[in-house]
């Protein structure tokens, strides 16, 4: 019996010493933080005032409940913020991707469709303008050639008219010869020479007049048969000259018609070239307007991409900062909750009258 009582006393004493050491450790742990020291002060003041222990327990438990609610609210708010962040990131990334696609597609359309089309239209316009310039050169050259041909025609007709007049003079001279003197014969021969001088060597009348001169040089002009042969030859020559004048006049009239038809054809070609240029210019204007529109759209989408990227970077940085704040706040709440639970355990211990800060 005595042994049992002795053992019980030893156990009680040992337990008291263990509780005392545990309480001392709890006090030491609490005093390491500002929040723990504040709780120790509260416990000490309550102990010194001799207030009911249950009031202190209730106060600490209420504090623990507040901390748990704040921690729960912190978790809830951060979860909501995380969901918002994830949704915003997905939206911004999609916006960035859409902007990149728009920029690439628009640039592809410009490079592979509109720019080549503009160059093609401009090349066509330049070519047709070149055709127009050639057309006007041909027009001017045709007018110059026609003027030259007309001048040649008038000179040739004037030459033939002079020859006709000289033949008429020769015929009149022959008609006055009955018993021609040497002077009259010389005068007639000079008249034929004058006709030869008026007829160009390239004229088809030149051989005929040379034959007449040869005939007149070796004939006896007192012989009427000889004179008749010369007169017939001169009349034949005159008729040939008149026929040539008529042929030249008819050819000149035809040349004028052909020339006017050619100029009309050139004018029609020029007008058609101008219509082609006008249509191409309309296409070029529309193409340039489309290029300007797409270039503006591309630049706007590139600016959108840059803005979305900046917003995404800002959102990620902001969320990272908020995550740090959340983590630090959660750790602080958890630490304070642990300290509060230690303080509650201390208050609930058998004796905390020796609590001193």
How does the helix and strand content classify structurally?
Answer: mainly alpha
Q: Number of helix segments?
A: 6
Taking Cα atoms only, what radius of gyration do you get, to the nearest Å? 65 Å
**Taking all residues together, what is the mean pLDDT?**
79
The major beta sheet can be summarized as: none
Coiled coil: 53-84, 256-290
Keywords: Coiled coil, Signal
Signal peptide: 1-20
Structure description:
Keywords: Coiled coil, Signal. By secondary structure, the protein is mainly alpha-helical. It has six helices and no strands. α3 runs antiparallel to α4 (182-198). It is rod-shaped and about 180 Å long.
Give a quick summary of the entry.
The chain is 90% helix and 0% strand.
